[in-house]
Prior knowledge:
Layout: H1 4-13, E1 30-31, H2 37-44, H3 50-59, E2 60-63, E3 67-71, E4 77-80, H4 86-92, H5 99-102, E5 104-105, E6 113-114, E7 120-128, H6 130-133, H7 143-164, E8 169-175, E9 180-189, E10 191-197, H8 200-203, H9 207-210, E11 222-228, E12 231-232, E13 241-242, E14 252-257, H10 268-299, H11 301-328, H12 331-349, H13 352-358, H14 361-381, H15 388-401, H16 405-415, H17 424-441, H18 446-452, H19 457-465, H20 472-479, H21 483-489, H22 492-533, E15 546-551, E16 555-557, E17 560-562, E18 565-567, H23 568-577, H24 588-592, E19 602-607, E20 619-621, E21 626-634, E22 652-656, H25 657-667, H26 671-678
Parallel strand pairs: 13-21
Antiparallel strand pairs: 1-15, 2-3, 2-7, 3-4, 4-11, 5-10, 6-10, 7-9, 8-9, 10-11, 11-12, 14-15, 14-20, 16-17, 18-19, 19-22, 20-21, 21-22
Amino acid sequence: xxxxxxxxxxxxxxxxxxxxxxxxxxxxxxxxxxxxxxxxxxxxxxxxxxxxxxxxxxxxxxxxxxxxxxxxxxxxxxxxxxxxxxxxxxxxxxxxxxxxxxxxxxxxxxxxxxxxxxxxxxxxxxxxxxxxxxxxxxxxxxxxxxxxxxxxxxxxxxxxxxxxxxxxxxxxxxxxxxxxxxxxxxxxxxxxxxxxxxxxxxxxxxxxxxxxxxxxxxxxxxxxxxxxxxxxxxxxxxxxxxxxxxxxxxxxxxxxxxxxxxxxxxxxxxxxxxxxxxxxxxxxxxxxxxxxxxxxxxxxxxxxxxxxxxxxxxxxxxxxxxxxxxxxxxxxxxxxxxxxxxxxxxxxxxxxxxxxxxxxxxxxxxxxxxxxxxxxxxxxxxxxxxxxxxxxxxxxxxxxxxxxxxxxxxxxxxxxxxxxxxxxxxxxxxxxxxxxxxxxxxxxxxxxxxxxxxxxxxxxxxxxxxxxxxxxxxxxxxxxxxxxxxxxxxxxxxxxxxxxxxxxxxxxxxxxxxxxxxxxxxxxxxxxxxxxxxxxxxxxxxxxxxxxxxxxxxxxxxxxxxxxxxxxxxxxxxxxxxxxxxxxxxxxxxxxxxxxxxxxxxxxxxxxxxxxxxxxxxxxxxxxxxxxxxxxxxxxxxxxxxxxxxxxxxxxxxxxxxxxxxxxxxxxxxxxxxxxxxxxxx
Length: 682
């Protein structure tokens, strides 16, 4: 991978050889308005027509909750991951039933259950609005002015689009860090109903130990259905047909989905702040929270059920951040980034016009990064954190001191809301927050000094929990008075809030200023990229629809080889090898119906497609636009692709279509759904 920057520079010197795109560290998250048609033709021998592109775009969906999905039948049937809907499934489970753990299968369309809050979006139109977003920006405008003008212009663009086309949802998306802006328009479905969700242990087999690893044995799928006017949505014009011919090692496949965020265009200085400050703070928070939750979940089955889906999400984030941080701590990744950055800078500096406009960008971003090292921890910890009583104290202060009447009124309403009952788990979470805050901010920090004094967080906890703010009548008197009344109460928590809010406001001002400066310089960096490379590179992920080409391919690992696919034989073997202990236990239906299953069928498979968080639920399709699988994860080696794309070992991990059909027909008695997918029903 160290040769990537050299290859990139050579490719550019030769007029940007199409074949060299395979080695771009900026990856292959192509937008539909700029698909790399010539590259696909040269690299894969595949000629994509506009009809093909429109079909795969309109068959693909975005879940407002943060995942991807796709139409897989003419009757509005949608495929996504189980982990993308399990929170919603938990909410609609009837009293006394646990559809997350035990699964759900509708007997027919009338049996499908509405999922409140589930919104699906289809990208129907794209328009370049870069000129409109930059309207009114003048040479010499400050970074704050540039940011303010772009924000105002963006609101106007969206408002105008809504006025002209109120039937669709409109969103301006910033590409190449603000060098380009696109107006994306979406059709929305808000009546979405659950059709099939397998057992949690089926979709999450192997649990956290197997998360972000491969070989893998998860059948992480679910099916929902879009409804319009009380009837199944008509999707016959745009849906992915089910592939029944299979795939093999080396086959070309495409992923269409909505990758959430990558950081490939960030400079070394920006990545160093993430490595040294931001990621370690976040990872420590996740580690400690998860440990506390597990402690209390083990003590009470009711707590376990309440927190289960939340903790699964936290564990996924925890492992992802470990992978991201590990990537940033990898000298080879930083060496490759350094080489690519130097090649980029050299090209800019070689052109007098580019040098005059963009030559200072890297130095300015480094200065901003130095300031972010100071303010990022303050922005994180100058807030109420996990404490209901600190939150109440902050709202009391705002209710009395806010300048605007509407802000005071809103704060008064919040301050008088009932507090949750004090619990041992809440105490441990608060103590942990304060311990981490002291580590990050130092013992001399003024907010922590007001809250803790000379005591340790654990010792100060009793004083915090003895606050007079737990008394509702005291709160009512305080919010009806003035600032002097707040000081006269002489309450430890309230005194800390009085100190915290001014310093928090200062931190917010500084962070906002740095963010505006960073955005302005990042946009210039994106413009420099455009000037040097054009649209032959793909932009960072923005949780908008992308198409990613790749091939089905195993890889070397742990001194041996990972096969391109796993089978049901492997699932049952892994459960046996761990003696059926959790998280390698099989759900009851899978034990009882083992003899029905064709154990030779493919279960999971890997490919070189370029994905990141947000791609969960993405369809993986053949060049014939037939769905062969469902993205649900990547391996650990894929996580550093957040910063630099590599395809030697990083892989996307998918559920094979055969595994879903086996599950539907052999385990869950859902032949009617399998028939709808394969097309044997009307």
